């Protein structure tokens, strides 16, 4: 196999504990949209997280439109996307925290200089940048190596579409087989796998050992090569992939 030279990190709940905060912030907006379209169901943040983890707001709204059989005009959707982005960023700037052990591992990797490092997220670029800055992780990633499926592509999309990973590889100048992605969700894992990238599944952000085991099995079923429950296991997981 080609030598691994690049690490591609998902952001939300992989580097930064942000998913719960983000879905909490966007639940009210999602419910406003449902009410506007005369749909009675309402969602809490945790319910949205359970249904749409790993997807951005645009992807979530696509799922809700399909589920409830309604259609949003493009201009309406883009207006709400901007509102959601602003609300989520304001919340993250107040409350975001790093995933346990992530900063220490990033520091080790940066000092080793063995790998290039980039962030590949479904979330809007402004949101990713705000999250990384809040938890002091922005210093580990070149500004032009932070990629957003919602912002960096000519046509916005969301994981599990592999487009953002393929775009990141092209910009960085790497073949997918030279890269390892670190992902916490099914949609993110599928995105990387479909791009031909090795995957370390991180399940440490899920509550409790039972849920972590369940998610680890799910991500392995969807193509993840190895599973870690804590960032202290990353070097071992990476070594397993490199030796395979």
User: How large is the count of helical segments?
Assistant: 10
Structural class comes to: alpha/beta
Q: Count the E strands.
A: 8
Alpha-carbon distance between the two ends: 8 Å
Shape: globular
Strand order of the largest sheet: 5-4-1-6-7-8
Task: State the helicity in percent bands.
Answer: 40-55%
Chain-averaged pLDDT: 95
Keywords:
single chain, 244 residues, alpha/beta, 6-stranded parallel beta sheet, two-stranded antiparallel ribbon, globular
Summarize the structure.
This protein has 244 residues and is α/β, with parallel strands linked by helices. Helices cover 51% and strands 12% of the residues.
Kindly describe this structure.
By secondary structure, this protein is of the alpha/beta class. A six-stranded parallel beta sheet has the order 5-4-1-6-7-8, with helices on both faces. It has ten helices and eight strands. Helix 1 packs antiparallel against helix 4 (74-95). 51% of the residues lie in helices and 12% in strands.
